[in-house]
Amino acid sequence: MKLCTENHPTVRVRSLSATYNCIGMVFANRRTWIDPSHVQMILDDDGYREVDRKDVRPGDIVIDRDVDGSLTHAGVVISNEPDLASAHWKTTVLSQWGADGEYFHDLGDVNVSLGTPDGFYSERRP
Amino acid sequence: MTLANLLPLIEDCRFSAEVNVASGRDAFFRALRRHPRVQELQQLLEHRAAAEALVARLAEISSRPIDPQYENPLDSALAAYLTALEDAPYPDLTESGALAISTTAPNCWWAVEASTRLLRRERLRVTSNAVGVGTLTIRPMVEMRAGNLTASAAASSAPMSGLTNRWELPHNGTAIAKGSRSAGHRRARRPTKKAA
To answer: In terms of CA atoms, which chain A residue is nearest residue B190?
Structure first.
């Protein structure tokens, strides 16, 4: 935890369990590790659709990818509010960082190994 | 930095925390290869003596007793050593290291992933080179003798003295893969408690 908070001072820890990874947190009720290579299949099977940033609601999912396009990380959106001062969205995410614990953090404020945000997905029905 | 100075840094819990932030196999091994300590190690392995010392160290720590309730605290370090050896031009030493992990290291995940991949690749290489023999009929054997390794492993802080084991790669890899989970449910049985 100390290592994560040193490099990302604004993150807040929720849990330090290593039983699951980020994908297991999002899709498997924090019970197991799931390899990121299976995420696209899960999204397709469960009827997830991509949503625009402005339409993101708490409970939706954010997917991160590496520079080569491979899926590296996933988290659950906790809040998504417009920041009028900066004319941007302020999005807070809850995600598990490998075996290093589960953190509340700003969108994109994650370890470099976890990639950068690439899209939001939701299973909500319009 | 010398090998003797570098190895304790890789075996430290900080290194483990830094690379274990990765969420999957590909990301983990990418993080390993990008890590400055592993890159330093790869540079040192340009010399065969250093690679031999590293294999000796790997064999020594992979057989270290651990608390079976917890994951092996040296899992990441073992995976890092094997990854560095994989990128070095000594396939015989790489295979020795992989065999040491697959046969002796308890409660490892990443290290076993790396060693299984290497051993399967080696088996394919050997069988494809066989003449007039069907697949899976040749089992590569590797012999690690203490004399060969400890003579050049003087730099290691814990030379592999007395190790005369002889390992044999199983026919179908089941022994190596034993205990591993399907890719879709990895670490389902990973211990929940972290070692202090």
So the answer is: A19
> Domains along chain A?
2-122 (3.90.1720)
Which chain A residues are Cβ-neighbours of B27 within 8 angstroms? 36, 66, 70, 72, 113-115
> How far, in Å, are A30, A36, A55, B101, B165 from residue B189 at the CA level?
13, 18, 38, 20, 30
Q: Which domain holds residue B11?
A: 3-185
Which residue is listed with tokens 């980020």? A22
Angle formed at CA B97 by CA B91 and CA B98, multiple of 5 degrees:
85
Q: Please indicate, yes or no, if residue B193 is contained in any of the structural domains.
A: no
Q: Per-block average pLDDT, block size 10, for chain B (196 residues)?
A: 91 91 89 93 92 91 89 92 90 85 85 87 62 38 39 36 38 37 41 46
CB contact under 8 A, B21 and A72: no
The answer as to whether B48 is a domain residue is yes
Residue of B nearest to A65 (CA): B27
B191 lies in some domain: no
pTM over 0.90? The answer is: no
Residue B90 lies in a domain: yes
Rounded Cα distance between B172 and A33, Å, is: 26
Do the chains contact at B27 and A33, CB–CB below 8 Å?
A: no
The number of folded domains in chain B is 1
Complex confidence, ipTM: 0.78
The CA distance from A124 to the nearest CA of chain B, in Å, is 25
